Each structure stands twice: as C-alpha cells, then as structure tokens.
Amino acid sequence: MKIEFLASILSLLFVALSCDRPKEKVNSSEDKIETKKSTTISKEENKISILKNSMLEYMENANPSYTKIDVEECAKILNNYVSEISNSGSKDEGLEIVKITVEKLNKLNEKCDFELIETSEREQIAEIIIVESSKKGYNKPEEDITEAWREW
Fold first, then answer.
1. H or E segment at 107?
2. Count of Cβ atoms closer than 10 Å to residue 98 Cβ
3. What is the tens place of the pLDDT at every residue in 55-106?
4. C-beta separation of 132 from 105 below 8 A
5. From CA 73, how far away is CA 79, in angstroms rounded?
6. Going by C-beta distance under 8 Å and a sequence separation of 6 or more, which residues neighbour residue 140?
7. What superkingdom heads the lineage (predicted)?
8. Alpha carbon 7 to chain centroid distance?
9. Closest CA to 102 of 49, 55, 146
C-alpha cells in the first residue's frame, strides 16, 4: 500500500513538473552559439561599463581635465571596437581595427591632457582590446597588440 501511494505521488509530481515547464530545444548548436555570443558581448560590455563607472566616480572625488562626455566617448570607442573586431574577417583587418581604435583613444586622451587614461584605465582598456582580438585568433592572450600605437 505504501509503495502504491509513493508511486502515485511520484507520478503526480512528474506530470505536474512536465506540464509547468516550457519546452526546451535539446542541444541545438544555434542556441549554443547564440548563448555564447550573448554572454561574450555581455562580459565585454560589462568591462566597459565598469571602466566608465570608475572614471565617472573618480570625477566626483577629483577635478580631472576630462568630462562626462569624454568618458562616454571612450566607452563608445571601446564598444565600437568590440563590435568591429567581432565582425572582422582577417588578421590584417583585425589589426587595422586595433590600430584605429588605439589612435582614437590616443587623441581622446591627449584632448584630456593625458588624464583620462592612466595606469588603471590603461590596463583595463588594453585587456578589452587584447582579449577580443585573441578570441578571433589574431594574437595570443598574453600578447599586447596595442603597444605599437599606444601613447597611454
């Protein structure tokens, strides 16, 4: 009797759980790619957001020569870089994107009397650029591909 009671409860639980849950695709490679892309973009956007927030927070405690608009421009340059590098088709194209991005950041930093990108920001920005390029296979993760053009 106890076994029959336990079996009927388990059957009810099975039915209840299977009815309430939405159907999921099983091992769809498209889903895995989509999830991976979304996660990757999300992580890089998060790194850029952390950098931006750090710069803005510093502005509250100090009187730097840069403005909120300059910080937003820096974030825009980095977000554009992430998008462009992920859509690039060759190492040569990717390295040209890196070069253009670093040169834009050089000009922005110069406009800000070289105060926008200091040691901490340099490390964060270089990491974003290097990691995204290495995901495409254009460099090794430990290889600083910004150094040739970087003035910050």
1. helix 91-111
2. 25
3. 999 999 999 999 999 999 999 999 999 999 999 999 999 999 999 999 999 9
4. no
5. 10
6. 134
7. Bacteria
8. 49
9. 146
Coil, strand or helix at 138: coil
HSE-CB at 116 with a 13 A cutoff on CA atoms is 23
CA-based torsion, 135, 138, 143, 144: positive or negative? negative
pLDDT at 25 over 80: no
Question: Residue 110 is which amino acid?
Answer: E
Question: How large is the angle between the packed helices 119-135 and 68-87, nearest 10 degrees?
Answer: 20
Predicted pLDDT at 23: 42
Calpha distance 65→61 (Å, rounded):
13
Query: What is the separation, in whole angstroms, between the first and last Cα of the chain?
Result: 78
16: its two tokens: 């209840």
- The tokens describing 107, both together, are 């000009």
AA letter at 34: E
Residue 133's nearest CA partner among 72, 103, 92 is 92
Identify the pLDDT of residue 28: 39
Does the structure show a pLDDT above 80 at 149?
yes
pLDDT, tens digit (0-9, with 9 covering 90-100), for 102-133: 999 999 999 999 999 999 999 999 999 999 99
> Which residue shows structure tokens 């388990």?
10
Q: What is the pTM of this model?
A: 0.71
